[in-house]
């Protein structure tokens, strides 16, 4: 008889679905469905995760530990036993830890978002050893800093409420691809008469279905937001009562916005003055005359540029100026993470660290870090990399440097993986990890407000082990005896949150077990009367945190590092702005090797405007090289008016070895960091394109 097991979708996605997995009588998972009772999931899974069993039982799953035979990057490996693998890892790490513990560096990101199989046990081990810490900046840290310095944390509207909004501005997000459950609510609102506006350089799948699409130039969003603020102040589109009682720094913000006239902003953003004027008055009238809910949904697209943190701060001011938070269906959502009282100290045990606070390596500049010889400022040269839940050789910027770094012969690299990824090709030892169907975990979400408990549905395939188990085994083999280094998965799961917090007090472990999920106790309109988790309790237009650091306390427009306006000399050689947003059929580099999805997306492409194509004599379907000083990669031309002239789009993120030249778009991306949060600037990148 078959059974149905409750599993949480583990992927790096705001929607964190509750899944029902059907397991047949011989213990094989045969079906994965969305839980119809979980309000956020509502019985719907995305294109990718409906293929979860295809990915799990993929013929290329890594099933045994392996040792490298050929050169680094070549991908030649031979099967070994777990004992051999653990002996080698324990002895190498012990030797390095005795001499220079900070030479050991973990590298991990969003392969799984569960608290048990992501950090937790891994962090405990690295803390105990005194290894380097990793600054996890590759995705969202600019936006997170923007949120924190304006609202106090990643907090905002309830995703479930958007179906009741009257005007929804989708800013730097393509939710048909990346947050389909939010999109279903936006569509419900649209059917009820709401207006949807997309702000995006690209006419994305979602932008095509919105009532209006405003195609700003990449990296100019802060200017647009400051232009809107300029008009709000000029025309009196302001909720004075909300501003006086629940915000700080209005006068200074108004002064800052004074120079952002619609004419100036139109020039920066590459859009007509009338578009800015019309957007400002539509927002103002809907919020203040009609008193209807105005909602913003921010993605991470606008923060992968030099001024990304400031852009998020500037946009985050808008709903507070309009008093939009008064309605449950009004306000803004970028991330809901800040509502979850995560108990990081219990999970990661930083107190185990023998050397106080160890040095931190920024994951977005891992190329330079791996190539650094070591000195007083940098600290010890990196000697060991332990990679789990991430594929840095494909996802980190300035990829040729990353690959060169991983190719160092004096580097000891261990990769925990499901598949032989581009990164696994550089490993000394590859360890086979379980998927979410094979292990247990606990999850929050960054798009909704539910905690989810995930149960193992099937036995581990081959000799696969959960990450947490692998780190327990390494700790034991190294002779480390702290009890917390042997805690089991469910013991760790129970430590993930502070359960006495007002948001979690009503959540019962038994309910999580039987129902799979439970919602945080957060008000429908949490900021209707202020109460932001900032030091002042108000929305901080002028940030006390930034002021204390001696930084500009107000949001401003910082031009991209690389754009024709800000860097004409560079643009003379590399005139096109490249963005590389997520593809619908992939999840970063996960799922790129799933055949049924690959048939829908057979090869890397570059979308470009007919004018840019004609200038270069490029025809539809031609093979192209995309290049700048950092490197090049190859794609097939797609000529379309979906993208504005001067900007090109390479949907991402391809496995390098599945690209036609063994490369992907991160060859050309730079290691420059954002204004706030030290994040990567993937969409701040000038290139030139030519036929091959
Ligand atoms: N199918 C699928 N889903 C995913 C992912 C995936 O790879 N595939 N990745 C997951 C992850 S890790 C994340 S972080 C989230 C990302 O989710 P979002 O942050 O919502 O990212 P996208 O939906 O790709 O939206 C980015 C949009 O920003 C646009 N953009 C680029 N530059 C700019 C700019 O300067 N200004 C503005 N206004 N827009 C800009 C791009 O054209 C793109 O349409 O999605 C998650 N979900
Ligand atoms: N050019 C460009 N580059 C980008 C982006 C972009 O938009 N453009 N987006 C950036 C963003 S937003 C992000 S979040 C990063 C994403 O970067 P990553 O977090 O590295 O995401 P993935 O490429 O999906 O790699 C995750 C890997 O973890 C593995 N994995 C999954 N579950 C487990 C597990 O339980 N155990 C172990 N050991 N492994 C597991 C998967 O098989 C997969 O190979 O990429 C960034 N890079
Ligand atoms: Mo991400």
UniProtKB/TrEMBL annotation:
SMART domains for the chain: Molybdop_Fe4S4
Residue intervals of the 4Fe-4S Mo/W bis-MGD-type domain: 2-60
InterPro entries referenced in this protein's UniProt entry, alphabetically: Asp_de-COase-like_dom_sf, MoPterin_dinucl-bd_dom, Mopterin_OxRdtase, Mopterin_OxRdtase_4Fe-4S_dom, Mopterin_OxRdtase_prok_CS, Prok_Mopterin_Oxidored, YoaE_C
Entry cofactors: Mo-bis(molybdopterin guanine dinucleotide)
Pfam families the UniProt entry points to: Molybdop_Fe4S4 (PF04879), Molybdopterin (PF00384), Molydop_binding (PF01568)
UniProt keyword annotations, A-Z: Iron, Iron-sulfur, Metal-binding, Molybdenum, Oxidoreductase
Similarity field: Belongs to the prokaryotic molybdopterin-containing oxidoreductase family.
Name used for this protein in its record: Molybdopterin oxidoreductase family protein
Organism: Thiothrix winogradskyi
């Amino acid at each position: 008889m078959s059974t149905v097991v409750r599993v949480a979708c583990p992927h790096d996605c705001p929607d964190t679905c509750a899944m029902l997995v059907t397991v047949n009588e011989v213990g094989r998972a045969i079906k994965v469905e969305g839980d119809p009772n979980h309000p956020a999931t509502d019985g719907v899974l995305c294109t990718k995760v409906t293929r979860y069993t295809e990915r799990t039982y993929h013929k290329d799953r890594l099933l045994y530990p392996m040792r490298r035979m050929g050169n680094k990057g070549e991908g030649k490996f031979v099967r070994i036993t777990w004992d051999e693998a653990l002996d080698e890892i324990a002895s190498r790490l012990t030797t390095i830890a005795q001499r220079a513990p900070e030479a050991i560096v973990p590298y991990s990101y969003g392969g799984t978002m569960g608290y048990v199989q992501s950090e937790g046990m891994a962090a405990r081990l690295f803390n105990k050893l005194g290894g380097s810490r990793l600054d996890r900046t590759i995705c969202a840290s600019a936006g997170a800093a923007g949120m924190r310095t304006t609202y106090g944390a990643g907090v905002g509207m309830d995703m479930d409420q958007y179906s009741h909004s009257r005007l929804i501005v989708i800013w730097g997000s393509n939710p048909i691809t990346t947050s389909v459950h939010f999109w279903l609510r936006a569509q419900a609102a649209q059917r009820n008469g709401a207006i949807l506006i997309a702000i995006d350089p690209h006419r994305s799948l979602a932008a095509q279905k919105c009532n209006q699409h405003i195609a700003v130039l990449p990296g100019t969003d802060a200017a647009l937001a400051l232009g809107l603020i300029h008009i709000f102040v000029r025309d009196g589109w302001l909720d004075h009562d909300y501003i006086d009682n629940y915000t700080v720094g209005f006068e200074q913000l108004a002064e800052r916005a004074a120079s952002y006239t619609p004419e100036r902003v139109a020039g920066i953003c590459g859009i007509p003055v009338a578009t800015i004027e019309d957007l400002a008055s539509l927002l103002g009238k809907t919020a203040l005359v009609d008193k209807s809910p105005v909602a913003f949904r921010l993605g991470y697209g606008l923060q992968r540029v030099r001024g990304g943190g400031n852009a998020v701060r500037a946009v985050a001011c808008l709903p507070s100026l309009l008093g939009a938070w008064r309605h449950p269906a009004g306000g803004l959502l970028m991330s809901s993470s800040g509502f979850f009282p995560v108990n990081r100290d219990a999970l990661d045990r930083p107190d185990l660290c023998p050397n106080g606070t160890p040095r931190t390596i920024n994951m977005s500049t891992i190329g330079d870090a791996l190539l650094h010889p070591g000195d007083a400022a940098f600290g010890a040269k990196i000697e060991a990399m332990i990679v789990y839940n991430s594929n840095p050789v494909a996802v980190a910027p300035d990829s040729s440097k990353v690959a060169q770094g991983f190719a160092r012969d004096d580097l000891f690299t261990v990769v925990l993986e499901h598949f032989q990824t581009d990164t696994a090709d550089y490993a000394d030892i590859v360890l086979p990890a379980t998927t979410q169907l094979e292990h247990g975990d606990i999850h929050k979400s960054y798009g909704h407000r539910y905690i989810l408990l995930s149960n193992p549905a099937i036995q581990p395939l081959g000799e696969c082990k959960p990450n947490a188990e692998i780190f327990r085994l390494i700790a034991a083999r190294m002779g480390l005896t702290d009890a917390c280094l042997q805690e089991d998965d469910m013991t760790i799961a129970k430590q993930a949150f502070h359960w006495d917090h007002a948001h979690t007090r009503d959540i019962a472990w038994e309910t999580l077990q039987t129902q799979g999920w439970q919602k945080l106790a957060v008000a429908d309109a949490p900021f209707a009367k202020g109460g932001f988790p900032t030091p002042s309790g108000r929305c901080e237009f002028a940030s006390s945190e930034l002021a204390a650091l001696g930084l500009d306390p107000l949001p401003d427009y910082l031009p991209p590092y690389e754009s024709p306006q800000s860097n004409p000399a560079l643009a003379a050689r590399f005139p096109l702005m490249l963005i590389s947003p997520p593809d619908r059929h992939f999840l970063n580099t996960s799922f790129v090797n799933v055949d049924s999805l690959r048939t829908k997306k057979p090869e890397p492409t570059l979308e470009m405007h007919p004018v840019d194509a004609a200038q270069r004599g490029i025809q539809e379907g031609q093979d192209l090289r995309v290049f700048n000083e950092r490197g090049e990669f190859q794609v097939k031309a797609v000529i379309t008016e979906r993208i504005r002239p001067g900007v090109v789009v390479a949907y991402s993120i391809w496995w390098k070895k599945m690209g036609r030249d063994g490369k992907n778009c991160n060859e050309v991306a730079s290691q420059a960091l954002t204004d706030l949060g030290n994040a990567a600037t993937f969409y701040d990148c000038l290139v030139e394109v030519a036929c091959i």
